[in-house]
Design a protein that fits this description.
CATH architecture of the largest domain: 3-Layer(aba) Sandwich
CATH class of the largest domain: Alpha Beta
Radius of gyration: 29 Å
Shape: globular
Distance between the termini: 74 Å
Bound molecules: flavin-adenine dinucleotide, iron/sulfur cluster
Number of strands: 23
Structural class: alpha/beta
Helix content: 25-40%
CATH topology of the largest domain: Rossmann fold
Amino acid sequence: MSELKPKPSPDKQDKCVNDSISSQKNAENSVSRTKKPRGVAQLIAGACIACGARCQSVCPVNCVEMTDSGEPIIDTAKCIGCQKCVKVCPASALEMFFTPEEKRILEQLAASAAPVEEEIDPEAAAIAAKLAAYRGVWVFVEQTEGEPAKVSWELLGVGAGLARTLGVELSALVVGENVEHLCHEAFAYGAAKAYLLDAPVYYHYRTEAYVEGCCHLIEKYKPEVILMGATGMGRDLAGAIATRVGTGLTADCTGLAIDDKRNLMQTRPAFGGNIMATIMCDKYRPQMSTVRPNVMQMPERKEGAEGTIIRDPFTVPEESVLTKVIEIIRDSHSKGAVDITGAEFIISGGRGMMAPENFAILQELADELGGVVGASRSAVDAGWMAGDRQVGQTGKTVRPKIYIACGISGAIQHLVGMQDSDMVIAINRDSSAPIFEVATYGIVGDLFQVVPAITAKIRELKQKK
Ligand SMILES: Cc1cc2nc3c(=O)[nH]c(=O)nc-3n(C[C@H](O)[C@H](O)[C@H](O)COP(=O)(O)OP(=O)(O)OC[C@H]3O[C@@H](n4cnc5c(N)ncnc54)[C@H](O)[C@@H]3O)c2cc1C
Ligand code: SF4
Ligand code: SF4
């Protein structure tokens, strides 16, 4: 454990004495400006968790060195007391040290009502000025041949809450050819404004043209938040735009909120889904996130809602776009593919199903309910079910009315894909299985008895009708 004994430099001590003298004079003469001592950072012995030198990376004057065991040594002579390391430390292992003289000045300041002259950190001031130029929440409206992706409306739903908290407008970003109808659809889902790029070059999604167009609008109108669907198109476009405009991007967010400094708190699973991380982009704008379909709730559609369309004439010469689209082959055309994301009833099986043929009992129940069969990754990895049935972090996110989990333990990577279902029914013979923690109803028992019994009961009830 490294021990740090802060010894303020002679310079710093001189400064303190000068501050002290000036503060006494201020008190005597009722002069209204006193400099507040800033102190120096110090490590609290035994508190550092060696998080990976976050304190070192934020220090603007490079006065933090790391020991071999990953703990900081702070050069107090160079420290300017900006507190960045203190704020960033996840273990609260750093604190500010004040000399007795500085403490006395702080006490005097606290006791007097005299206004305090805060030293302005020039780096922080420059960042604040840069960020202040960006305002507004934008949602990219994904479309293919004029047909919108539902995730765009889901994002308008969450975007409305963010815009309200920030006190700004919610806008749609619509790019395509003959797609003005999508602006009106966006108004129905809550957008107040739509930025529209409408030209033949945008008919098919091609990264080069869309990046040029979107970046033109971003540079011109400066939104502070941009949300996109974590779809094939959204992932491709968001990454390219973030690189071009030089900002951060958080993929596959499951939660979005605003902190007290207007930063977007972007929550997503990390380290294989074992923890939820909240990621911020506090020095760059716009703040960009992608969100998978069905993660956010669909907002209410208000027929006839009106908004303003900002039609921008910016276009890209066709000859500068190297990609040519010959044909669009939709996923749903592929043989046997099932879209579990739109299903109202999903009956999923896990490793507890024991064999692929046993999924037949889930299919029977699904048929009675008018639903589809889903699967955990273990069942997919075992080759029992196709990959398009997988629910979870690396599969699909679903929000059915009823999700029935059969022989699924409830690993966090599975839960993130289904826990927002309206109702979860879990069938597991292990009463301590984590799936019961998110279940509305839990049945402890052998699924090979319980599932056929539920199917038989539904058939019986249907026959009685
Ligand atoms: C990066 C990463 C991404 C991942 N992504 C996903 C993902 O998208 N989706 C996903 O599902 N997993 C994912 N996983 C895997 C996840 O961690 C789990 O390993 C997996 O979900 C376990 O599947 P399971 O519940 O079917 O199997 P198990 O954990 O083995 O659970 C089987 C359950 O069946 C019960 N059971 C057995 N027999 C019966 C019976 N006769 N009657 C009733 N109950 C019975 C058992 O009590 C047990 O609870 C991911 C893992 C990682 C590291
Ligand atoms: S208070 Fe600021 S200057 Fe001092 S060590 Fe921490 S980050 Fe560096
Ligand atoms: S930020 Fe905190 S936990 Fe991380 S290395 Fe520095 S003192 Fe240790």
